[in-house]
Specification:
It comes from Roseicella aerolata. This is Methyltransferase domain-containing protein. By secondary structure, the chain is of the alpha/beta class. The protein contains nine helices and seven strands. The protein has helices at 20-35, 37-49, 67-74, 89-101, 140-150, 179-188, 195-205, 228-240, 246-261; strands spanning 58-61, 82-86, 108-112, 127-131, 154-170, 209-222, 265-279. The longest helix is centred in the N-terminal third of the chain and has 16 residues, at 20-35. The two termini are 25 Å apart. The chain binds S-adenosylmethionine.
Length: 280
Amino acid sequence: MQQSQLKSPDPWGRTFRMEERTLASAAMRLEARGRHPFFAHVLDEYASRLDLSGTEAILDLGCGTGLAARAFARRPEVKGPITAIDVSPHLVEAGRRAAAGEGVGGRIDFRVGDAHRLDLPEGSFDVVVMHTLISHVADPTTVLAEARRLLRPGSGRLVVFDGDHSSLTFATDAPDGGEVTDRILQRTGVAHPRVMRAMPRLLAQARLVLLWSRGYVVADTGRADFFSPGIASLRVLLPKAGAMSEAKAAAFAERLERASAENSFFGASNFYTYVAVRGD
Ligand SMILES: C[S@@+](CC[C@H](N)C(=O)[O-])C[C@H]1O[C@@H](n2cnc3c(N)ncnc32)[C@H](O)[C@@H]1O
């Protein structure tokens, strides 16, 4: 199995063959989202939970522009090697530039690769982080098995953080209140909208032992805040996924932006973090 076998129109699963304009918009979206206090909090919370001693080798898998890798590189207790891998050469290059700009370029080894099968030796990492990767891959089961292979036997730990995209909702003033557009977003925005609900079972199947998990709800009421950059990117990403024409996607985004300007916006989604250990 490899990423090119993805069946879903999920644009985040197709970054390896997107044109530059769409990738530039995707990179901006990731950076904007990464600056939001919710993402900063989530990252800090799971990084603290790992109780790192300083020498651990860390892999940011599906790194995009390297948000998680850069956050780990900035933590004073992290002194070991950090690797960041993404299937998109464009995003890997954007990550390299961002890391250099923040003065942590020398700390992170950025590489292009497919999470289904990486050309890296077994047991290479103490920590593998998937920060909003798993819902976009062609086959989550294969990717979890590959993460397990890459973890150090015994102590190696996996962090999986992602949205429970089946819960994503934007209320609109359409007669159905946004039900149809919610369904379109849930179906086309990610390949596996329910994967975070299946995660305890998938981790057990992959012989990874669940150590800790946390659920979060992000809700913007009145003004769009967390969801604001995501709404702007709908203009590009929905037509790219074949879900709507450019005109319909623009009208949908404008409707949500108008609601935010009028202080009548409602958008919400659940998110989960899981930390699991490889064991033997
Ligand atoms: C929603 S983005 C998250 C990026 C980054 N982790 C963040 O949170 O800012 C999903 C990322 O997964 C990458 N991706 C999708 N399928 C992949 C695969 N099979 N192997 C490696 N990366 C993949 C995409 O290129 C994209 O950068």
